[in-house]
């Protein structure tokens, strides 16, 4: 007796065989589907826990739905984690991703730091998602450090997660490969200026390794009393770049000149050191700094922490300063070589360590208007107008030359130095604006006055 199926006659044995074959195929497909979904779930879990997670996964916005995000959050809360105190953050935003801003920073640590703050503002203004920035690895310092080697990536992302809603339509990715063209210092909306502060003073937190080492150095200094941080920009590259050779031997001057010509991106080659110094455009020498600190009545027993690289000329050039202030120290003399082993050949990480110590010093004295000097100055203003002595280099070199030539007595020299710097101690002041010459006006990050209305201003940024 035959069985009718789809208009054809089949014997019972063939029907049974076909049924078994179909069942095997269905079971194979079901098993494969289960395995694939298991792999997806496992990969997602691993991606959230591995050390590369922040760069590969967390650097891009979440594509989860609100329900999925809530489920993941519930799972994570069930897992025991170390207690870490962090500032209250806004709830995570769930949104559709439409575009990205990629940023390749250039310059030293503090030039890149300020640029990152500006890039967050640009991302918000354009309504795009900012990918974790790429740091400069091709400049003079040749530092291989990545963003996550210096800054806490997780903190950076979560502290800014309510600022970005991507709406780019025409182009999905915008890449800015240089960041040394700054936003305007003045004339921007108040909320934009305060966002720059929020990024600088809250989102850009150094890694736990850098912060812990910084705290160790600060504790060591505090055990011996108050300390002054001297940002002594007298390294070889600074002198070669600026063309300033005051006090250098003919051989050293020749060496610095060769170095300047060796780097094509240093555009200015023929430099008159005498003229630049006369107009206050050179970093102060260690000898000039020693005179100024004594004239300002800085206690000779004060600890002087040198926040800088290797001083050009070594002990010979530092002799006047160490004679007047015997308690001159640097991170290399306070810490063991093993403590700095992981920071060697990573200039940005070494600069981050100096940055932390500079913030906590009783007095901060920069000898040149570089990016670190300006950014630290502004950060110390934000911390309650901590004492920062802003040296008038043009006036100082004129007085130093008169004093060393014998035409000015010490008491006259000291008195004039005090008078000129009485209102240059980092106190509250209005940022000078020069609309037609923006490069000559006061730098926003040196005096973020829009953010200095009170100690709790950051909570409202």
UniProtKB/TrEMBL annotation:
It is found in: Membrane. One of its GO terms (cellular component) is membrane. One of its GO terms (biological process) is fucose metabolic process. One of its GO terms (molecular function) is glycosyltransferase activity. It comes from the Eukaryota. CDD domains: O-FucT_plant. Pfam families: O-FucT. Its main location: membrane. Keywords: Carbohydrate metabolism, Fucose metabolism, Glycoprotein, Glycosyltransferase, Membrane, Signal-anchor, Transferase, Transmembrane, Transmembrane helix. It is a single-pass type II membrane protein. Pathway: Glycan metabolism. Transmembrane segments: none annotated. Belongs to the glycosyltransferase GT106 family. This is O-fucosyltransferase family protein.
């Amino acid at each position: 007796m035959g069985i009718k199926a789809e208009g054809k006659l089949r014997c019972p044995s063939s029907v049974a065989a076909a049924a078994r074959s179909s069942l095997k195929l269905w079971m194979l497909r079901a098993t494969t589907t289960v395995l694939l979904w298991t792999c997806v779930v496992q990969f997602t879990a691993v991606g959230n826990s591995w050390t590369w997670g922040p760069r590969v996964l967390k650097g891009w916005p979440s594509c989860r739905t609100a329900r999925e995000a809530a489920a993941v959050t519930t799972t994570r809360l069930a897992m025991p984690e170390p207690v870490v105190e962090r500032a209250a953050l806004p709830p995570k935003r769930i949104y559709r991703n439409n575009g990205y801003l990629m940023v390749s920073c250039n310059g030293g640590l503090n030039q890149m730091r300020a640029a990152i703050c500006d890039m967050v503002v640009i991302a918000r203004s354009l309504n795009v998602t900012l990918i974790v920035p790429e740091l400069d690895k091709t400049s003079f310092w040749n530092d291989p450090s990545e963003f996550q080697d210096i800054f806490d990536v997780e903190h950076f992302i979560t502290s800014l997660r309510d600022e970005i809603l991507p709406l780019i339509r025409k182009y999905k990715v915008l890449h800015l490969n240089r960041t040394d063209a700054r936003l305007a210092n003045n004339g921007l909306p108040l909320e934009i200026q305060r966002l720059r502060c929020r990024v600088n003073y809250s989102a850009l937190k150094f890694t736990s390794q850098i912060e812990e080492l910084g705290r160790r150095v600060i504790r060591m200094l505090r055990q011996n009393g108050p300390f002054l941080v001297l940002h002594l920009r007298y390294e070889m590259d600074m002198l070669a770049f600026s063309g300033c050779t005051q006090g250098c031997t003919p051989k050293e001057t020749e060496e610095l000149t060769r170095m300047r010509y060796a780097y094509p991106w240093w555009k200015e080659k023929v430099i008159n050191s005498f003229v630049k110094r006369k107009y206050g455009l050179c970093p102060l020498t260690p000898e000039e700094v020693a005179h100024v600190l004594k004239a300002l009545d800085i206690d000779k027993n004060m600890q002087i922490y040198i926040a800088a690289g290797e001083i050009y000329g070594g002990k010979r050039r530092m002799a006047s300063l160490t004679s007047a202030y015997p308690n001159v120290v640097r991170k290399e003399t306070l810490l063991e070589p093993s403590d700095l082993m992981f920071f060697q050949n990573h200039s940005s990480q070494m600069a981050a360590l100096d940055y932390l110590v500079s913030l906590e010093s009783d007095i901060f004295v920069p000898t040149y208007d570089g990016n670190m000097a300006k950014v630290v100055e502004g950060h110390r203003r934000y911390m309650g107008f901590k004492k920062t002595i802003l040296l008038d280099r043009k006036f100082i070199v004129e007085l130093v030359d008169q004093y060393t030539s014998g035409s000015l007595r010490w008491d006259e020299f000291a008195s004039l130095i005090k008078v000129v710097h009485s209102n240059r101690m980092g106190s509250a002041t209005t940022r000078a604006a020069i609309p037609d010459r923006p490069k000559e006006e006061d730098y926003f990050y040196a005096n973020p006055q829009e953010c200095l209305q009170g100690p709790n201003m950051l909570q409202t940024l």
